[in-house]
Specification:
Layout (H helix, E strand, L loop, with lengths): L24 H24 L2
């Protein structure tokens, strides 16, 4: 499960306004990493269309 970011970082800071009862750190981190995978994909597609 542990792997560095694309910039070879091992730590990332994530701020959220979710209440502690709904904010499991591991789940938020997993969702965040997935989101940025999608953002990177969209950026690649957008740049290749130019």
């Amino acid at each position: 499960m542990f792997k560095p970011t694309r910039d070879k970082e091992w730590e990332i800071a994530i701020l959220t306004n979710l209440p502690p009862s709904n904010a499991q750190a591991a789940k938020i981190t997993e969702l965040y990493r997935h989101r940025w995978s999608l953002e990177t994909l969209f950026q690649t597609v957008t740049e290749s269309e130019k």
